[in-house]
Design brief:
This protein is an all-beta fold and 208 residues long. It has no helices and 10 strands. Strands 1, 2, 3, 4, 5, 6, 7, 8, 9 and 10 form a 10-stranded mixed sheet that branches. It is globular and about 60 Å long. 7% of the residues are buried.
Length: 208
């Protein structure tokens, strides 16, 4: 992308509030959080819809305006058995300009859900996870809409010693080789899909 700066930008100032509610038991914990942030002179990295003649890249510029962010997160962790646990996370952000107009802000994540289940026997563990991302059609002017997608992943590991400092781990991301586009990506063209299936084998040493 071709970026155009501005010498007219002022200091970005924000005021916000956060609220957290948490409940825990020996096997289950739940946390719900929310926030609202109001900005003056918020610096916006915005697509213009134009294309630079020399580079043929889409033109983005920096502007300042008032803006408001609102959102929240829900997290649930459940210990099903001594070896089996699950985790669920949902987050949401809504952001738009509140000064010159009411347009949505660019590069705002859509609603996202991630759930995982893990079986841990101490020296061996296996994790399966699913990440679901909704369509993002609350976009800024000239910003591309991105479709929703669901990704499946897994990981397995073996701890070579009692303290767990030496770990061998096998990881598979995007197991179903899903073609998707990340709304937060700043590559010059969001029409390029993100990486497909990826398999990695790693050795880790923890200094603890």
């Amino acid at each position: 992308m071709y970026e155009v700066g501005s010498s007219d930008l002022k200091d970005e100032i924000g005021h916000g509030a956060d609220l957290f509610v948490e409940w825990t038991s020996p096997r289950w914990s739940v946390e719900l959080s929310g926030f609202v942030n109001q900005f003056s002179n918020y610096i916006i990295f915005e697509p213009t819809g134009a294309v630079d003649d020399l580079s043929a890249l889409p033109v983005f510029h920096y502007i300042g305006d008032e803006a408001r962010f609102m959102g929240g997160e829900f997290v649930s962790a459940l210990q099903l058995t001594p070896a089996l646990s699950s985790l669920l996370t949902i987050d949401y952000v809504h952001a738009r300009r509140t000064g010159q107009d009411r347009a949505h802000l660019p590069f705002i994540p859509p609603m996202r859900l991630k759930t995982e289940i893990e079986y841990d026997l101490g020296n061996v563990w296996v994790n399966v996870n699913v990440r679901a991302v909704s369509k993002q059609d609350r976009v800024a002017p000239e910003e591309n809409v991105t479709d929703g997608y669901t990704l499946l992943g897994m990981a397995a590991g073996y701890r070579l010693d009692y303290n767990g400092r030496h770990v061998l781990m096998l990881r598979v991301d995007n197991m179903m080789d899903t073609k998707y586009r990340d709304h937060l990506s700043r590559v010059e063209d969001r029409q390029f899909p993100m990486p497909g299936r990826n398999i990695s084998l790693a050795y880790r040493y923890y200094f603890h």
